[in-house]
Here is the input.
Amino acid sequence: MALNIKRPNGTEDVVPKDVHRWHTIEKIARETAESFGFGEIRFPTFENTELFLRSVGETTDVVQKEMYTVMAKESKFTLRPEGTAGAIRAMLQNGLLNEALPQKVYYITSCFRHERPQAGRLREFHQFGLEMAGSASPAADAEVISLASTLLSRLGLKNIELYINSIGCPECRAKYHEALKAYFEARKDELCDTCKDRLVKNPMRLLDCKNPICQEIGKDAPLILDYLCEDCGNHFESLKSYLDKLGITYKVNPKIVRGLDYYTKTVFEFVTTEIGAQGTVCGGGRYDGLIEQLGGQHTPALGFGMGIERLLLVMDKQGCDYLTPKKCDIYFATMGDAALEKAMELSKSLREYGYFAEYDMMGRGLKAQMKYANKIDAAFTVVLGDNELEQGKAKLKDMEKGEETEIALNEKFTVVFEEIYFNKIMDVMDVESADGNLFSFMGGEN
Ligand code: ATP
Ligand code: MG
Here is the structure.
C-alpha cells in the first residue's frame, strides 16, 4: 500500500505561490515594530512546562485543555501556546531587564494549542507579538495599542474595532472576586465542572468560559470597572485620553477579561466581524506582576499577540494588497552543452548583481523551454545555441513587448542588461505618470 501521510489536523502548509502573503505581513510588522524602537527576539519553540503553569495560569483553558506537553527522559516540556512567557523568560535569562528601560522586543513565531480546528482556529498558528518592559505609565499602554493600530492600517485593513477594558490590580481584583463568587454561588449547580472548580480558585475565569450555559449565567455578572481602585481607575482614564489625542477610536468593553491569568489593568482586543466567530485578530494587555512571578525584580510590562492566519483571512476578505512576488528577470533557453555552460556563467554574474536569472535544468527542447519561460513570466529571454556562441552575441527579447535587442555575450553582458532593464522600468513609470500615478506616488500635485 502506498504511504499516504497527511499533515496533522489543524496545521497548514504554505506553498511558494502563496508565501508572499506571509512575507507582506512579516515585512510590514517588522518595519512597524522597529519604527517604534522594538528589536527582534528569538526563543525556543518548547520550554519547561512549569513556565506556562506559572505565567498563563493553572485555571486557564490554555493550561487545562490546550497545551502540547511531552515527557522527554525525566523532563516535562511544552510547545509554546503563546509568546509572552518565553519572551519574558528569555529577557530575564539574558539580563535584558538590567539594561536601559524600557526594553522592547518583538517576535514572529508559531504557537501550539490543542483546540477544535475551524476557520481562524488552528492547532499550530502564528503570532506577531511584542512586549515592552519597564514602564508603568499609561503612555506605554497607548504606545503599544498605537503600534498595533498602525500595523493594521499599514496592512490596509479597515473596520477593525478596538475594545479596551481594565481588569485592575490584585487589590481591586480581590474585592471583585468576592462579588463574582457571591453572584455565581447562587447558580453554582448549573455551571460546568471546570467552572465549579474555578469558582473556588479563580472566579474571573468563569467569564471566559466558552460553555453556553456558563456564558448565559455570566451575562449579568458584576463588572470589574465598578471595582477599580483609584490608581487603576486613573490609569484607565489617562489611557483613554492618550488614545483620544492619538486619534485612535475605541470602545470600552467591560466584559473583556482575556484568557491568560497574567494580565493586570489594561486589556484590549482588535476585533473584526468579517471572518466569522474567530474575529479577534489581536489581543493584549498589561501584566505588571508577571516578571516578578517569573523570578525577576518587580517590573511593569505589557504586550500583545496578533494571529497571522486571522490577519490573512481578513486581508483576503477585504482584498488588501500584498507585496508582488519576485519574478524571473531573465531566462536563458539553451541548445547544447556549450550554451548551457554560457548560461551558467552569465547567470552567475547577473545573480551577483541581484537579478533573478534561470536556465533549463530539464534537458528540454527549445519550444518547451520557451513555454516554461512564459509560464514563469520571465521579463526577458535569450536563446543560446551554437550560432550565438560562434558570433559572440545573441538576441535579448523583452517578452512583454516582443522587442529584441542584440547583446554581446561577453563580460559586459550584465552591465548592458542592467541598462536595458532600467530603461524598461523608466518606460513603465512614464506610462504611470501619464495616468497621474507617478505624481501621487511621489507626493506631488498636478
Ligand atoms: P480566542 O478567544 O480567539 O481563543 P485567545 O484569547 O485565546 O483567542 P490570545 O491568547 O490572546 O488568544 O492570542 C492572541 C491572538 O492569537 C488572538 O487574538 C488570535 O488572533 C490568535 N490566536 C489565538 N489562538 C489561535 C488559534 N488557535 N488559531 C489561530 N489564531 C489564534
Ligand atoms: Mg483561545
In short: The chain has two domains: 19-169+229-318, 330-432. The radius of gyration is 28 Å. Residues 332 and 359 are 5 Å apart (CA to CA). The domain at 330-432 is CATH 3.40.50.800 (Rossmann fold).
